[in-house]
Amino acid sequence: MSEELKNRSIDPASIEMLEKAAQENIRTVFDRAEKMKPCPIGGEGSCCSICAMGPCRVPLAKGKEETPEEKTKRTGVCGATVETIAARNFVRKIAAGTASHSDHGRRVVEAFKLMAENKIKDFEVKDEQKLLNLALDLGIEIGERDNNEIALDIAKICENEFGKQEGELIFVKNAPIKRQEIWKKQGVVPRGIDREVVELMHRTHMGVDQDYKSLMLQGTRTALADGWGGSMIATELQDVMFGTPTPALSEINLGVLKEDMVNIIIHGHEPALAEMLAVLSHDPELIEYAKTKGAKGINLAGMCCTANEIMMRHGVPIAGNYLQQELAIITGAVDAMVVDVQCIMQGLQEVARCFHTKLITTDERAHITDSSFMLFDERKARESARVIIKASIDNFTNRSKNIRIPQIKTPLIAGFSHETINYLLGGLYRASYRPLNDNIINGRIRGLAGVVGCNNARTTHDSAHTLMIKELLKNDVLVLSTGCAAMAAGKAGLMLPEAAKEFCGPGLAEVCETVGIPPVLHMGACVDNSRILVAATAVVKDGGLGDDISDLPAAGAAPEWMSEKAIAIGQYFVASGVFTIFGTNWPTLGSSDFTNYLFKDMEAMYGGKWAFEPDAVKAAHLMIEHIDKKRKALGIDKARERVLYDMQMRREMEAV
Question: 494-514, pLDDT tens digit by residue?
Answer without folding.
Answer: 999 999 999 999 999 999 999
